[in-house]
Amino acid sequence: MKIAMFTDSYYPTVDGVVSSVSTISRELERIGHEVLIFAPEPTDGQKVEDITKGGTYFFKSFKFRHYPQYRTAFLPSKKTKIIGSLGVDLIHTHGITTVGLKGLGAARHFDVPVATTYHTMINEAMNYYKPVPLPTGIIINLAVRYIRFFLSRADAVVAPSRPILEELVRIAPRMPYAAVIPTGIDTARFHPHGRGDAVREKYGLGDSPLLLYVGRVAYEKNIESVIRTMPLLHDRNIKLMIVGDGPARRELEEMVSSMRLKERIIFAGFIRDEELVDYYAAADAFISASKFETQGISMLEAMSCGKPVAGINYRASTDFIIDGVNGFLFDDNPHSMASKIETALEAGPEISRNARRTAEVYSKENCAMSLSRLYSRLINMDLSR
């Protein structure tokens, strides 16, 4: 099959959506499909990594004012017209804003099936990144209406986890077809035998217990609550390392300074993908307090590395973490979080083995095959509209 992926987020931005598109594209090509990428063009002369053999096509884009790492491609474009000449069998959108909307339009124009993966709870993102100066309640209401409009017009909606699928069914009950297909992780690369000695030496960690966060440093990730929980931990030698970058970093650094936690909390910044395994290896446990996740790829990567994960008892975390079996779930309060962090840091080898077994279920190979079966189903269906 020849698949055109339309994504609202792409290199040089690095986030969960970009990682998903990259992983999915490579694995689909490995099993014999051809993948084309349609994405916003880089801005300010930034270089972009072309990850596909089939090529990448860019739409003219502009920085999103409220989050400069992202670009929007809202201008009309004739680029989608090449879909007809490329012989595309199916369009898969990763996002439902500007480029996603172009993908939906191209699918309808050329009468090919369209699937969309719902990666981001954009209605909740409006709490942090309002695109227009209107009351937040009005913007959220409009966002929900738009989500309903978009999803009801896709031939299939892919949710990365069951809790997200349940939410989407409530928002858009007229979706023609919906399925849970997570983004797979590279369990061969993220493995329990990594070496974290160099990372520990670089940051002077010694034998200190290390709690790790990996992901965007953004307001919706609720990193602030993890920082506020640090003083509640009984062992004052426990360190927190925050790997990633984003719009909330400066504010969080100022918060750490004001709380006099600079000796215990490390902002490592952006780390290249190939180095991440060493950071997971250096850690004793992983933390995610984000209620925003649709899947939680970094949590699964940590589990694939055999690390005990403490995740908030909400949405995606509950889809793969079984409390006390392969990880730990905490309630949305500092004392519960502190307790589960300490339990995770002290967890024995059985938790690590179970975490790894869980991650293997979410391998990129398994998930790509599920996606391939969905594509075949859509192509062979009568999609009379």
Automatic annotation (TrEMBL):
Enzyme class: transferase
Classification via Gene3D superfamilies: Glycogen Phosphorylase B
Alphabetized UniProt keyword annotations: Glycosyltransferase, Transferase
Residue intervals of the Glycosyltransferase subfamily 4-like N-terminal domain: 14-189
UniProt keyword S-adenosyl-L-methionine, yes or no: no
Keyword Cytoplasm set for record: no
EC nos: 2.4.-.-
A GO molecular-function annotation: glycosyltransferase activity
Chain ranges of the Glycosyl transferase family domain: 200-354
Alphabetized PANTHER family for the sequence: SULFOQUINOVOSYL TRANSFERASE SQD2
Protein name: Glycosyltransferase
Protein source organism: Candidatus Sysuiplasma superficiale
Lineage of the organism: Archaea, Methanobacteriati, Thermoplasmatota, Thermoplasmata, Candidatus Sysuiplasmatales
